[in-house]
Amino acid sequence: MRFLKLQQVMDKTTLCRSSIYILIKAGEFPENYTVMGKRKAWLESEVDDWLMSKMEECRTVN
Questions:
Q1: pTM (2 decimals)?
Q2: Is domain 3-61 given the CATH code 3.40.50 in the classification?
Q3: If DSSP codes are grouped into helix, strand and coil, which group holds residue 41?
């Protein structure tokens, strides 16, 4: 299990900060976790799963 910081999530998904939080609010992106008392982080496996689902959506549309 590996956690990603916001910048790492942004780099991996190519989404900006505001887009990530808009998608979270809409229930369309994995929520973050509070780690070490105050830091927000995402599980890499959940972000990877989200990316794979988006790739599969693109394949079925095209």
A1: 0.88
A2: no
A3: strand
